[in-house]
Amino acid sequence: MEIGKQIQKLRREKNLTQEQMAAALGVTSAAVSKWETNAAMPDVAMLCPLARLLGTTVDKLLDFRPALEPEEINALLEERRKLFEANRLEEAVNSCEALLREYPNDLNLKCAAAGLYIMYMPSCSDTDGIDRQMERAVTLLEESRKTDDPSLAANARSMLVNLYIMREELDKALAILDEEPVVQLNARTVRANILLRKGELDEAEKLYQTELWSAGRDAALALVGLYNTASRREDWARAMERVDTAMALERVLRAEELGGLTSSLHMLRAEVLRRQGKPDEAMESLRSYVDQSLAQWKRMNSGEAVRSVFYDRLDMRASGMSAAYLAKYIRAALEESEELAALRDREDFQHLLVKLAEAEAK
Question: What is the pTM of this model?
C-alpha cells in the first residue's frame, strides 16, 4: 500500500481531520494533504510522531517487510520473465537486480531469481553474457543455501551442483553433494503409511503419488546416465537400449503428463540413430522431440488438469516459460548440435526449423 493511502486510512480510523492531524504534529493541513495524495513524503523526523499519532509503527506505516511472500515473488518475477522473453535482456537483469537490492536478505527471492537467470541464459547472444548470468546465479545460490529452511537449501544446492557441472568445476559440485544428509529412511513413504493407517486417505494418496513421480524421474535420469556412459564408449546398441528403456518407463508411469523426460529422450534417440546410419529414423525421432516438447509445454502452462490417475492429486507448477521461447531454444539446439550436423541439409530437417520459427513468432 502506498504510504499516502495508509496515512489516510489510519487517520480516518482515528476519526481525525487533516487539520487536527496537522495541529497535533505541528505542520500545515496542506502538508498532510500532500502526504495523503503522495505529492510529498513526510520528513524522516516526522515518521515516529506520525506513527504514534496513528497508533501504529513506522514499519507498518511504510509497509516494511524484510521478505516477500512466495506468491509475491512469483508475480514480481513473472513481470521480469516477460522482459527476458522479449529479448530486453539488459532491462530484465537490471529490474531483477533492483528487486534484489530492495530485499537484500530475502533468500527465497535470491533462489527464485537465480532460477530465472538459469532458465534464460540461452537468451544471451554471446559467451560473456552467459558467463555473467551464470556467475550471478552461482552467487545468489551460494547465499540461498545458507538458509535454515531445508527445502530452500536443498533446492539451491541442486541448482548449484548443475551449474558447477556446467562450468566443469566438478570438485565444487562433489563438495556440495557431500553436504547432503545421508537418508536413513524414506520419510515421505513412512508418513504416507502412517496417514493411511489413520484413515487420512487424501493426504496419504498425495504423498504416494509424489513418491511415485520422484522415483520414476530418478530411474529415468539414471537410465539417461547409463545412456551417456554407453555413448562415450560408442556402444550405440547399448545406448539405444537404455534410452528406449527410459521411454518405456515413462510410458508405464505416464510421466510425460507432468513434464517428464520423454520429449528429451526422443532427441537422444535421434542422435543414436544418426550414429547408426539411420537418418530417416533419426528425423522421425526429431519430429517427435519437437512435437511432444511443444505439446507438453502447452499442456503444462495451460492450467489443464492432470489426466492420469497416478498423479491427479498433484499440483505441478509450470515453469512460466512461453511456448514461443521454448521453440526458440529448441531451434537453436537443433541448429548448433554437432551430433545432428549431418542432417541439416535435409528438407525435412529444414521444415522442422521453419515449424519452430513459426511457433516462436506466435
Answer: 0.71
CA–CA separation, 290 vs 353, rounded Å?
Answer: 10
Q: What are the sequence ranges of the domains in the chain?
A: 3-61, 70-179, 219-361
- CATH architecture of the domain 219-361 equals Alpha Horseshoe (1.25)
CB 112 within 8 A of CB 77: yes
- The C-alpha atoms of residue 337 and residue 264 are separated, in whole angstroms, by 14
Say if CB 285 and CB 273 are below 8 A apart: yes
Residue with cell 556440495: 176
pLDDT of residue 252: 92
Extract the residue ranges of the chain whose pLDDT is less than 50: none
Nearest to 250 by CA among 240, 239, 261: 261
Q: Do domains 70-179 and 219-361 have the same CATH topology?
A: yes
Cα 176 from chain centroid? 21
Distance CA 117, CA 35 (A): 38
pLDDT recorded at residue 66? 78
Cα 133 versus chain centre, distance: 15
pLDDT of residue 319: 63
> 3-61 architecture in CATH?
Orthogonal Bundle (1.10)
Cell of 103: 530485499
CATH code of 70-179, in short, is 1.25.40.10
